[in-house]
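Figure 2 data, in text form.
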Amino acid sequence: MKVKIAIDAMGGDFGPEPIVKGTIEALKHYRFEPILVGKKEEILPLIPGGFKDKISIVEAADVIAMSDAATDALKRKESSIFKAVELVRNGEADGVVSAGHSGATMSVATLRLGRLKHVLRPALVTLMPNKKKKRTVLLDVGANVDCKPEHLAQFAVMGSCYAHDMWAINLPTVGLLANGEEETKGNDVTKGAFQRLRTMEGFVGNVEGRDIFNGTVDVVVCDGFIGNLVLKSSEGVASTITHLIKDYIRKSPIAITGALLMRKVFKLLKKELDYAEVGGAPLIGVKGCAIVSHGKSNSKAIKNAIKQAIDFVDTGVNVHIERALDDAVNKG
């Protein structure tokens, strides 16, 4: 049976065009059934004739704008994101992808789908590039601004299950983000989390920010406030370095020649840093699958977000998370 993915066609910054295009690109590569949710009169003209019988459309007249309050999403039951999540809740889809209002998507997914057994709080996961040409799993990057030690301890378990199932890592190594590697470093929350994680298989202790990019560990755990700062700062640094390199190259004929010779290297580097290669951030810990994509997602990002959703469902990571948390509870 094909995996069914509900896709919020209206939520992105650029309207339905890149989302429909990304869905069609995904259909060319992956086996799944897409359900586009949004305004049918805007979606239908964007679907080529050869794909009209391969895509379902669910009408949704309302769109949650980026300027709207996240909490309003629960009241606006005709919005594209609400209806897309409801398809998962009702068993009509296996997962949902949205490039719309991220806060609204997380709120609706958390409250309408509910949490997995034992999960205190779902967490948003992102995949950071590292020196080993792999991806470091970082969570939480924005779902929970204030956390307690028990929340971070659960994020570690969920992140480990995610890395194991999605990246085929037999025993993922897990680090707790702090301001030093020593056990005594960190604030009260991280110190408390350290004590809870001390006996967890794969836990290596505290790690520092640079370890995210060194690939020292497979999974890095922090609260959503710090995680979001890390994510946004990293995007800013990458953007600034790219800008400066282009600026310096333009000012020197020798540098232009060098840049031409290094064109292949720059292309590979761009691919490593391109958010579209990942596609979206899964909200793990909810019943079902919810992928939160960047508002400025292009068609490649949507295609890869759909791939993430398909893999998330196929691997059964939610079953793994529930089993791991069950074991943790039984061990006390």
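Caption note: The CA atoms of residues 120 and 186 lie 22 Å apart.
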